Amino acid sequence: MESTITHALKEWATAVDALAAGKTIMLLRKGGIKEEGNRFKVAYNQVLLYPTFEHQRPELLKVDYATRVQPVESLWHPETIRIGSWAEITDIFQVSAAETVAALLPYHIWNEEFATTRLKWKPRQPLYVLLLRTYKLPGVCTIQYCPEYGGCKSWIDLAEPISIAGAVPVLDDATYTEQVGEIRSIVSGEANSL
Questions:
Q1: How does pLDDT run across 155-189, given as a tens digit for each residue?
Q2: Is 7 exposed, middle or buried (0-12, 13-18, 19+ CB in 10 A)?
Q3: 102 in helix, strand or coil?
Q4: Deepest in the core among 6, 58, 150, 170, taking most CB within 10 A?
């Protein structure tokens, strides 16, 4: 494994915080507006977790997480970004059935409205379920915002690499493996693992 990473996955700051705290191992994606080919795909398996603020909507989060969102104006971004974790994407599933999405509700931070809306958006494309083994960096790295980091895209490359040496998993092996197993059993009847 490399000791530095430049690849980053952009995600709501609330979701990044939940991953870093071990509250979830799951992200749901269909991709940003500026995704290559207008379709979501996993570009990297090892990524820094880059928190975003612009499109967070408290009404789409479960109550415990909705109160943590501070709404910002459109096109707002902080001058500096705090990166305190990285993740290995261990599993990727595609799901299309509303029943499967409903069964996954206990495993992520979004509410039922978000999950249903995300599934219905671009209905011919599946909803991607990503499982992330998240690691906390020894210290938070503060980087300068660059215009290249903006826009509705999932994957970016940072101008400077960030060291992941000394990072520790937020969940122990047994806990992570158990959660992955539970999620796999939900999606196994319907989803295709990539």
A1: 999 999 999 999 999 999 999 999 999 999 999 86
A2: middle
A3: helix
A4: 170
